[in-house]
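Pasting as-is:
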Amino acid sequence: MSLALGATDAPGRVGRGLIGVAAFIGLAEVVTRAGIVNPAYLPPASSVLGTTGRLLVDPAFLVHVAGTLAAWAMGLAAAAAIAIPIGLLLGSSRRVRDASAAAVELLRPIPSVALIPLAILLLGRGLDMRVALVAYASAWPILFNTIYGVRELDPLAIDTARAFGLGRSEVIRRIALPSAAPFIYTGLRVAASIALILAVSVELIAGGAPGIGTWMLANSGAGVPRELLYAGIVVSGLLGLAINGLMVAGERRLFAWAPRLRSRL
């Protein structure tokens, strides 16, 4: 019943979202046209949207979009490949978790942006540097969601598996991993947004390889129409919206059986 209601209400949620976006754009247009805000700082929304449309069909700009998406995808994949196995290990072994707690708590608060100078020194300003920083930032939500997912496993299921002669590795692969999968996917969804933010932020600060942030940095100087800079911001937001929408749709399709997800549908 809840699944059917969620599917029925989906068009309504989309419609309300579009109304909210239209209202925001209209308000921004009125504020600029009325002279409340200097157009040199905030161009009319209609002008920004027109510039955005032209950028989306500009092959030179699409090269930068592809560069950002490449760093995003490779960094997120690397984070998942590293964080999921470590999370399964830490979640299933209290001794290992206690032994690594100090190192984890030491590394976790370090902002990825603060590592840019070191990453440039070690890896240069190319794609490798961006992928490494994106992977570092996006690994944490995947890691902790994996740990929480494993720790939520019913002890009775573990005892039953061991009674049938399954070893630790088999219990993790056949019991813990499927049970923790919804938690892991949630971590991936959160990490996907973080990865995009880091990819654009690193490009803005470090420049170098093609990317939306690199393009925005090159178009933020004096004499460059402000519409271009705002259009780059809009494109970044559209990418984030599309990525989150795809991840949410995937979560509903793959894990609709999970009670915590069913309650949100």
